[in-house]
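Regression test case RT-17, inverse folding.

Input:
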């Protein structure tokens, strides 16, 4: 029943997208790729305000698209299946370097991860995790990579001193911790901060990873220059004190700003690890 309800909700969102497309104009849809870091229902619900705004700003229909996992999502981006590519910073940097994607905008809030444990559990410091299990998002997620780096800095080598249990989403990683399948979890600080109080009250933040630039929007090189400039201007106007007010009120992203060279340069170390985990990107 839960799966059926999720599919019904997702279908309704897709139908809403198609209705918007039919009403917006007769031009081809602007294909916006959505990083599958949340469940389908939550993902499309969260980005509905952006979809509505872009449809009006670009005077064309907008379709929100995603994939079943990060690897498939990135592969489709490398084949230019998206006009606007919403990606974690290391994925955006890789898309710029290897596929010619162009910078559009990014969120202002720094991206970091929390190492969380059960409040009533036996883990009181990081070294207590030796021999235990840590639940994390997908291996391609930058929060996962930052979390693994943090564990290594405490002499806990993943796969040797500690078991890493990869989940499909941040929420699933938290669920693994709550249900006792893991001794700790490493998840996005932003996602944890907006979790229900009933969940947060059961957990405790043990440590925080380093911080990097937040999620970015990149434009396909296949998008005509005039459309690219129009899209970039529209996205940079989607701010917390403007058209993006409702979106940023309910999402942990801060605001919208331009992507700087420094944001991309700081991603080089993560690009190397990312490519090691993506055989087709080597």
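Golden output:
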């Amino acid at each position: 029943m839960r799966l059926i309800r999720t599919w019904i909700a997702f279908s309704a969102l897709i139908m809403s997208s198609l209705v918007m497309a039919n009403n917006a104009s007769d031009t081809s849809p602007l294909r916006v790729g959505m990083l599958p870091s949340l469940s389908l229902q939550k993902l499309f619900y969260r980005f509905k305000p952006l979809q509505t705004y872009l449809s009006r700003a670009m005077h064309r229909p907008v379709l929100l698209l995603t994939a079943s996992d990060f690897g498939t999502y990135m592969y489709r981006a490398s084949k230019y299946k998206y006009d606007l590519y919403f990606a974690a910073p290391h994925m955006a940097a890789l898309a710029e370097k290897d596929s010619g994607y162009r910078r559009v905008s990014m969120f202002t809030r720094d991206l970091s991860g929390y190492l969380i444990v059960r409040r009533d559990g036996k883990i009181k410091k990081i070294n207590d995790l030796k021999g235990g299990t840590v639940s994390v998002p997908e291996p391609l997620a930058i929060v996962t990579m930052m979390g693994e780096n943090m564990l290594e800095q405490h002499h806990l080598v993943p796969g040797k001193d500690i078991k890493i249990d990869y989940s499909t989403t941040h929420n699933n990683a938290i669920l693994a911790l709550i249900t006792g399948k893991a001794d700790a979890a490493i998840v996005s600080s932003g996602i944890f901060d907006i979790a229900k109080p009933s969940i947060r009250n059961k957990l405790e933040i043990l440590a925080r990873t380093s911080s990097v630039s937040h999620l970015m929007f990149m434009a396909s090189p296949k998008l005509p220059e005039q459309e690219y400039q129009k899209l970039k201007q529209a996205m940079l106007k989607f701010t917390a004190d403007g058209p993006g007010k409702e979106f940023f009120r309910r999402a942990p992203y801060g605001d919208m700003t331009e992507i700087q060279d420094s944001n991309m340069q700081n991603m080089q170390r993560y690009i190397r690890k990312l490519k090691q985990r993506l055989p087709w990107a080597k």
